[in-house]
Amino acid sequence: MAFNHLPAGVHDALVPLSVTPVTHSVPMAKNHRSDRSPAEPVSRPEPGTVLGRLASGPSRAARITHTEHLPPRAGRHAVWPDRIRPEVVAAVQAAGIEHPWAHQARAAEHALDGDSVVVATGTASGKSLAYLVPVLSTLLDGSEAPNGRGATALYLAPTKALAADQCRSVKELSQPLGASVRAAVYDGDTPFEEREWIRQYATYVLTNPDMLHRGILPSHPRWSSFLRALKYVVIDECHTYRGVFGSHVAQVLRRLRRLCARYGASPVFLLASATAAEPSVAARRLTGLPVVEVADDASPRGELVFALWEPPLTELEGEKGAPVRRTATAEAADLLTDLTVQGMRSIAFVRSRRGAELISVIAQERLGEVDRSLAGRVAAYRGGYLPEERRALERALHSGELLGLAATNALELGVDISGLDAVVIAGYPGTRASLWQQAGRAGRSGQGALAVLVARDDPLDTFLVHHPEALFDQPVESTVLDPDNPYVLAPHLCAAAAELPLTDEDLKLFGPACEELLPQLEAAKLLRRRTKAWHWTRRERAADLTDIRGAGGRPVQVVEAGTGRLLGTVDAEAAHTTVHEGAVHLHQGRTYLVRSLDLEDSVALVEQASPPYSTVARDTTSISVLETDVEVPWGDGRLCYGSVEVTNQVVSFLRRRLITGEVLGESKLDLPPRTLRTRAVWWTVTEDQLDAARINPEILGGSLHAAEHASIGLLPLFATCDRWDIGGVSVPLHPDTLLPTVFVYDGHPGGAGFAERAFHTAREWLTATREAIASCECDAGCPSCIQSPKCGNGNDPLHKRGAVRLLTVLLRGAEAGSR
């Protein structure tokens, strides 16, 4: 096994646990998949008891900065609408669900009335049943129609794992209904010999937006009988459709609606999300239709104990001598190990594929020292695995063969993993919505559950574990998406024209930006106007013009050099930073070194190795202002929002010692620059403001740079984004503004709405940024406040106190400007 000589620090927190478990009996909930057999009282340790074991010992106890107790809640029953077929009600009752919760009955009523509806209730509240019951009833009605196939329904999930899980659920629930309901998954993993049967005979097709975009819509004549009979479109976990991905999906759904109308269908949209602010507004923006909101959660909930956990400072020094905390990866591996030793079924969520692999490997190594049989009961789960690997892991998790899993957010969504006791979240996942999604994976059988958020050495994580009100007293974020983004809309207009020539009437569906874009597409010889319609002119597939997940090109194949075996893939946009020459690549517990990266052929050749370090890419960035859309005075300074062009180049990579994060060295790289046109927010300060902040030329660059880093770190608290979705540049004298300037920009072509949100919440955002820097316990700056893990300048220069003074003066100007 790789990492067979891990640093001693990996083993320092495992203490043999001999505490006698304190148990209590909790009746299982009566309204979700895990309770389809008669419920028995289940004896489990209370969440507080489990947390006490994890925190045993003075060094561990000090790491908990806050514990939130969410009390249990009783449920409220209702009755199904009388229009639901009695066979469907009987099937639901046979599954152990005697009566629906009130929100399920209400959502079903709207669906049967022909209203598009979004069910926005908590995790494990039975949202699946809320849309399945009216869908199954309608499919059963349709099976009796004289025209043969009858009614159909389409289900969209953001991940393959969720679609596969939902297909199992549908088949189990609809088994008493016989052949009237024929459910099947249609995605990239579906064998070709099954695809024709699905097109011709399936009545409930489960897929993802990617397959709808690339496979179903371009081949709509082959799907004509299915689309003609389409009654419902189910959009699960709809809050995940945000930013550029959400904007693409919004246009894919408009293309679907257009083709359905061509075949005489007008499907009702049923959306579900456990975590969405203003759900009806977000759903309307996504679908382009009016949507009714059902958000009053009537389901019961077991107790949830939610702990905030801050790793301790180590004796090590990072860049510029800054103090270094123990990594969230190492802490999460410790906690997953200890939970597994206790027999608790757990998931550790980690933000990166590499982190998931590393946590799994460390936990396996340490469990092997305690009990060899336990080592094989922990694994990693992430994107980039081959389909058969993913399915095997999902089966092992469902069966209980696996006790612990280190996973990326590929398992964050509604995959029903019954019986989980605890969730460890290694680093704030970027939004409160994702945080509650991940925490909600545990306790889905009605029992009490434990969730632990382990802070990374990062400004936002540090702020949150010391400001729990920002997590527990605030609603989840509004979904940010922009279907009118020209970089998003243009390829979908081409795809729509290739599916059916675009008429003037169609343009209302795609939005007002069409009028300006169509002449540009014609000038580029992509579309041609003939009589009353626009036609696609090329021989290649128009759907291939864009990757709706914003990957920006063909995925890079990761190939083992010695054998030619395909290990997996990496998104094109991530290749420069993750599989450059010399990078460490992890796959299923094995470590590889990248020997070469061929960008032309999209292939990275790797060979197995066991280096005692990980790698982190460094880059340089420059920025120019293309157009200023909005400008407001902040005292003498200015806050602006507009279009920019960003030029980025990966120039080197650092080697960091495993677990401790200690920098071992830096190596140069020769990779081509990449240019991005996007949207940005920026602010400027004047000489008078610099004088008031006591900022001299020697510390100006470091003060701006520190404020930029910290503001990027805090922005995910105010916009529905991830730190890695945005970028920043700070310049003591920018050629376009002729003033000291800090930019924060969207990391996607055309923008993703994050910078716009930053502009509108700038006072609150930068106030939190100032507080985060000022309250950090370090002297001169550290990863918890102003150092960035992706800084291309090696976090140099940085000036912590100057950043605080600069932001204080800037915000004073903002207050004066608002009076």
From TrEMBL:
Helicase C-terminal domain location: 331-487
One Gene Ontology molecular-function label: 3'-5' DNA helicase activity
Keywords of the record: ATP-binding, Helicase, Hydrolase, Nucleotide-binding
Domain of life: Bacteria
GO BP, one annotated term: nucleotide-excision repair
Classification via NCBIfam families: DECH_helic
This protein's name: DEAD/DEAH box helicase
Record organism: Streptomyces griseicoloratus
Lineage, top ranks: Bacteria, Bacillati, Actinomycetota, Actinomycetes, Kitasatosporales
